[in-house]
Fold this sequence. Notes:
Elements: H1 3-13, E1 18-24, E2 30-36, E3 45-48, E4 71-76, E5 82-83, E6 91-99, H2 110-122, E7 126-139, H3 168-172, H4 175-187, E8 192-197, E9 203-208, H5 213-233, E10 237-239, E11 253-261, H6 277-297, E12 319-321, E13 328-330, E14 340-342, H7 351-368, H8 391-399, H9 402-408, H10 410-428, H11 433-439
Parallel strand pairs: 1-6, 12-13
Antiparallel strand pairs: 1-2, 3-4, 4-6, 5-6, 7-9, 7-10, 7-11, 8-9, 11-14, 13-14
Amino acid sequence: MSKDQVFQPWLKEREIKDVEAFVPDMAGSARGKVVPAGKFGNSPMKLPEAIFGQTIAGDYVINPDNVEDRDMLLVPDPTTLRLVPWATDATASVFLDCFRSDGKPVDTSPRAVLRKMLDTYASKGWVPVVAPEVEFYLIYPHSDPNVAAEAPEGRLGRTEGARQPYSIDSMNDFDPFINDLYMNCEAQNIHIDTLSQEMGPAQFEINFLHGDAIHLADQVFLFKRTVREVAIQHKMHATFLAKPMAEEAGSALHVHQSVIDQDGRNIFSNEDGKPSELFFSFMGGLQTYMPEAMLIFAPYVNSYRRFLSPWSSPVNLSWAVDNRTVGLRVPDSGPQDRRIENRIAGSDVNPYLALAATLACGYLGMVEGLKPDAPVSGSAYSKKFALHRHLFTALAAFKESAAMRKVLGDNFVDLYGIVKEHEYRQFQAIITPYEREILMFNV
């Protein structure tokens, strides 16, 4: 069946005018083209491979593996075709997979990096199951970067003046936004589960139903776009910055993860219901290799500010059962639902890369038979701070990691490191308000 036969009946049935065809870039932003629906699938689409060498500011870096700035062939994934509910004209969207002229996947594409990791699991007869939890803030809209972010007015015409975690009344203050968010997600087959008020003012968390990692990464990607669009409709902005307000909690992307075999059995549990050796090895892999992958879980200079606020983010890679102070939490559950919640990543991550990295660390632990530390009792916040304190050390650890190169690929590690180094240098070139206010006339 040709691409035209796959896509055109669906598009015509819904009287679609345009198709947003996109690729998630290194930051998790959409890069692609808008194609008239009648022409979609009729001819090959191409984009420069250099889009994976774009920084968050839109600058290009030099990719040693792509100095000729070649094109890549874009293949639409028909399973991802869906409506764009906020578009003025009837519009659909679809994800594109990226290939080189020889038919091989572009190994620096985040979606391909995750798919490669899943293939690695499949070679062992394993299937990862993930369930992300994404936090974000609604903020008052303004265009002055020198003005601190503030909570927006709710339907009662006031801003939150106190922290109200899990408050139903605080959520109801933004009921019009929440209702439209659910409606837009439903229209796109984004399968969100529950919503809750988090620690910060107008900060929320959405839980996703568990499932296939590529499918869930697509869902998180689309959810971020949807939240921003719905917020604009309600005269607000939404941010997934890890630490948007200095005195408030940061925003995280927690990942619940387990692994099943080909019979659907959770390999983290033995037949008697007790944790398996593979469970402990997966945990050992997270503790051993996450420091080397921290650049993916904390990709920007702002990401490391989130770790400075105990009671709202982890400070180490301790683990325990039913303990939210640890970086690696094991929810209290039955044997078939045994899983590990990785609480390290901020909501600013690329979801494809965050899932690939946490699964990579766990995989290495299982194949190497690693052992974790003993579970902690009490608060892990009182334990030693054991994460990278800033991006530069995380960058060095990632670039020098033989393990990350083994599971994620040399080309990806090299290019991701180059992109992050360029972003770090750009940040370092900026004189901050602290320097002008505190240092300028006192040094």
